[in-house]
Amino acid sequence: MKLGRVRNIVVVAGAGISTGSGIPDFRTPGTGLYANLAKYDIPYPEAIFNIDYFSDNPHPFFSLAKELYPGHHRPNYVHYFIRMLHQKGLLLRMYTQNIDGLEKLCGIPDDKLVEAHGSFATAACHLCYTPYPAEEAKQAIMKGNVPICTFCAGAVKPNVVFFGEDLPEKYFQHAEDFPKADLLMIMGTSLKIEPFASLVNTVKSTVPRLLLNRDPVGPFERRPLRRADYMELGDLSDSVRKLAEILGWHTEIQDLMNSHENGLRSYTDPSNSSGENSDSSETDSMH
Ligand code: OAD
């Protein structure tokens, strides 16, 4: 990167990039979401995101959705590092499994972002896919009601991708992006969920793959590592900061984060009525 030889970085990310924002990941023992679902009385943890289970009983997901809806958390240093990759003209695309919306919130533009597991930004009937106003769906869910499709009377859900559902159209852009990548950065994911997990095997064999994660995952669990693979294990915020320092970007990222976060705060602060200064706008399978 320092020599300017890297120009098309693909970032692959998961819940570990948002733990620094106070959002639990899924599979970390003890703190992960799947270890803390006892109150929902579901047969197994992933059932809460299973489309057939939802079809039978949408209530556990809707109870959880009240907590998952974006709005309570801010992007952290790791998100802003990825935005800086974009600002430096180095980000070909970010593929995220996260549904917390923090990538958009930190300013990574839509055309650079693939939300592979969907988002809360839109909603539709889970049976006939008729679109439903996302804000109305949110209001109903927050009040403990089930939003109902006006066309077929099926339950409406936000367009987060459940086990048993297809991934969004945009995800299939990977077939063009990954062969073009000259560096793959994998951050904060257990690489346990297909088809997303296998994306990391679709860059050319000579392309460096950098894993930043607490523990080795996916192809990084095998020995020896592929010759162009490198992993930095530990807390993601520390590793990303270390990388930013090596690149000489640390202060720039902090300044970007401070100005963007202050802008967002003044935009949402009711005392600032003008709203100025804001530039915001088990190998499971999904199929
Ligand atoms: P997981 O919880 O499976 O994995 C998160 C990974 O990030 C683990 O390897 C953690 O060790 C690591 N991690 C967490 N916090 C970290 C930190 N501060 N520093 C370094 N590493 C950290 O989450 P995902 O891989 O994103 O799908 O899960 C993939 C999919 O499984 C999700 O999109 C979700 C879930 O079922 C659906 O809900 C459809």
Characterize the structure shown:
With 287 residues, the chain is an alpha/beta fold. It folds into 2 domains: 1-21 and 74-117 and 168-276, TPP-binding domain (Rossmann fold, 3-Layer(aba) Sandwich); 24-72 and 119-160, SIR2/SIRT2 'Small Domain'. Helices cover 27% and strands 17% of the residues. It is built from 8 helices and 11 strands. The protein has helices spanning 51-56, 59-68, 77-87, 102-105, 134-142, 174-180, 236-247, 250-268, and strands spanning 9-13, 91-96, 113-115, 118-125, 131-132, 156-160, 183-187, 193-194, 209-213, 229-233, 284-285. The strands form 3 sheets. The protein has a 6-stranded parallel sheet with strand order 3-2-1-7-9-10, sandwiched between helices. Strands 5-4-6 form a 3-stranded antiparallel sheet, with helices on one face. It has a two-stranded parallel ribbon with strand order 8-11. Helix 3 (77-87) crosses helix 8. The longest helix has 19 residues, at 250-268. The chain starts with 8 loop residues before the first strand and ends with a strand. The relative contact order is 0.16. 2'-O-acetyl adenosine-5-diphosphoribose (OAD) binds next to loops.
